[in-house]
From TrEMBL:
Family of the protein in this entry: Belongs to the PilY1 family.
Compartment(s) of residence: Fimbrium
Gene Ontology molecular function: metal ion binding
Protein name: PilY1 beta-propeller domain-containing protein
TM segment ranges: none
Domain PilY1 beta-propeller intervals: 39-271
Record-linked Pfam families: T4P_PilY1
Organism whose genome encodes this protein: Luteimonas granuli
Gene3D superfamilies: YVTN repeat-like/Quinoprotein amine dehydrogenase
Record keywords: Calcium, Fimbrium, Fimbrium biogenesis, Metal-binding
């Protein structure tokens, strides 16, 4: 049996949650969901589905009832006010807003918390990170970071921001071999978010970004060779744990020029991460 449901509330503002029930006849519309990928987790106490929509919001729904738990509107650094206000225009023509894929961490990767990374997809250049450990009490402090050509967390340079395009690929949240010090006995560093820089960036380069999953602080940016620049971008990625120890060793990535690249993260020292075997696979 297939069950369909509509959200019971629609939050407004930068981020709000609602606990008030709404009757079926009073339910406002939910924006169209085109390219965003729903993400499910049951590790938050309340089984929850997260998905982006072209009403300018990332929505969180109770997976059992369809009740909306919260809606997050990215800041003006990601979605300018001039674009957001078009949603209220009676002559509105369809546009994309929070249209990209969403990924949610597991507690095995982020112990004691659940993190979400989502992108705007065709809605704009950039992405965001949220702490969704408790969706029923989500608030402003749970918006952990946003990155766009206008603004980004610590460690990002102006060149990094210019490399950000429309990120169509699903970000990954993974543990790596990176350690806080030398030797195998040094503590493993926290989980990272890995994503390709996407299409239509200002720089036209291809690059793989690796950032702290919780803070968005840049860990590394691994660029493709200069000869591939110009109308390029990394559009899809996948990580590989070669020895099955839960730590991802390699990342494979496709670009707009028909290449598949291999990145080697199989080092405790993050400064050694780079293209593997010349990059091509």
């Amino acid at each position: 049996m297939v069950t369909a449901w509509r959200p019971t509330c629609l939050a407004s503002g930068a981020e709000k949650s609602s606990t008030a029930d709404r009757s079926a006849t009073a339910r406002p519309p939910l924006g169209d969901i085109v390219h965003s990928s729903p993400a499910f987790t049951a590790e938050t106490g309340t089984a929850t589905i997260f998905v982006g929509a072209n009403d300018g919001m990332l929505h969180a729904f109770n997976a059992a009832t369809g009740r909306e738990l919260f809606a997050y509107v990215p800041s003006a650094n990601l979605i300018p006010d001039d674009k957001l206000r078009l949603l209220a225009d009676p002559t509105y023509n369809h546009r994309f807003y929070v249209d990209g894929p969403v990924t949610v961490s597991t507690r095995a990767k982020t112990p004691g918390k659940t993190l979400l990374v989502g992108t705007l997809g065709r809605g704009g250049r950039g992405l965001f990170g949220l702490d969704v450990t408790s969706p029923t009490t989500f608030g402003a402090s749970n918006v952990k970071w946003e990155a766009s050509p206008a603004s980004a967390p610590s460690g990002w340079t102006a060149d990094d921001r210019s490399d950000l395009g429309m990120i169509l690929n699903k970000p990954l949240i993974v543990r790596t071999n990176a350690r806080d010090g030398n030797g195998n006995n040094a503590a493993l560093l926290p989980a990272v978010a890995i994503f390709g820089n996407g299409i239509n960036s200002a720089s036209g380069k291809g690059a793989l970004f690796i950032v702290d999953a919780e803070t968005g602080v840049k860990v590394r940016k691994l660029e493709l060779p200069a000869a591939t620049a110009g109308g390029n971008g990394i559009t899809s990625i996948q990580a590989w744990d070669e020895d099955g120890d839960g730590l991802h060793d390699f990342v494979f990535a496709g670009d707009l020029k028909g290449n598949v690249w291999k990145f080697d993260l199989n080092y405790g020292d993050q400064s050694k991460w780079n293209l593997a075997d010349g990059g091509y696979d």
